[in-house]
Amino acid sequence: MSPTGAVYLVGAGPGDPELLMAAVELLPLLQLPLCALVAVGLDRLFGEPRRFHPLVGFGRLAQGIEAALRRFPTRHTWQTNAGIAAWALAVLPFVGVALWLRSIAPAWLAVPLDVVLLYFALGAESLREHVVPIAAALEADDLPAARQAVGRIVSRDTTALDEPAVARAAVESTLENGSDAVFGALFWFALLGGPGALLFRLANTLDAMWGYRNERYLHFGRAAARLDDLLGYLPARLCALTYAALGRGRQALACWRAQAPLWDSPNAGPVMAAGAGSLGVSLGGAAVYHGQREARPALGVGPAPTAADIRRALALVRRGIGLWLIAGFVPALVWGARHA
Q1: Which residues fall within 8 angstroms of residue 270, CB to CB, at 6 or more apart?
Q2: What global pTM score does this model have?
Q3: If we measure between CA atoms, which residue out of 217, 199, 299 comes closest to residue 256?
Q4: Residues 123-150: pLDDT tens digits?
Q5: Percent of the chain scored above 70 by pLDDT?
Q6: Disulfide-capable partner of 196 in 72, 180, 188, 250 (CB 3.0 to 4.6 Å)?
Q7: Residue 336: what pLDDT?
Q8: How does 77-86 read in b/e, with b if 16+ C-beta sit within 10 Å?
Q9: Burial class of residue 145 in the structure, from the number of CB atoms within 10 Å of its CB (0-12 exposed, 13-18 middle, 19+ buried)
Q10: Which pLDDT value is given to residue 76?
Q11: What are the structural domain ranges in the chain?
């Protein structure tokens, strides 16, 4: 180590060409984790754009594509193929342009492009803004306000929920959206940079729009649902491992193994089972969707969640983000240690 505290390669001085070459080799390892750190910071400071959000425009485009393709025959096979075409028309041009721009852009432009794309793909602060009011309303014994707030983030009927049911819905949504709105984007960003985060966020948005098992979307939305499951498969399991690592690990893994296979969603099951086990609360159970009562499997172990558990679930997601950001710098640290 130099008198100023800078670490140099063995036998290399501050102006040594070997040091400069080492710095050049290290930069690619630092680019993505630094971009992720900046994007997470921007999301924490500003949240999602209040006006002119790109996803609002994307949603309108997707609606237009759907309307255009639905003018054709309504046979099931056609609707399935139309759904595939609609997904491709909505997603691939944007991802393709992002990949092209990133491939031709100089480093000074590629870096902000990655940061902006990941910033728009992240929804951690938006999740906090939606979840905290639910906990606050329950803490103030304002059940009507809590029902109204939780109704903004879940698709189940919330008009008759009691306090434990509101807290359960909020915790479930927090854990699941931790995977969908945060860790999935970070995973694909680590693989493909900004275009990867964009791909995941657009696919997840189309699943939210079209991925319903009802008469309208059972066939048309099948591609959107399946592709979202595929893109979210690995991130969801890494998210579940993250929840386990930051809480009651053995209990979380046991709940994952026993309970996740019983859940309809291949990705939500591991995430919510591991999250519930990590927090030591019971989730799942019957819920009303579109007027129909559904008997959902039990998740986790322990008492019913409370307002405090909603905040604990949110804190679990936030600690997970920190863990992933630290993990992003590990390759650079290992490389630096080997060449120090």
Answers
A1: 236, 237, 240, 256, 260
A2: 0.90
A3: 299
A4: 999 999 999 999 999 999 999 999 999 9
A5: 91
A6: 188
A7: 65
A8: eebbbbbbeb
A9: middle
A10: 76
A11: 26-339
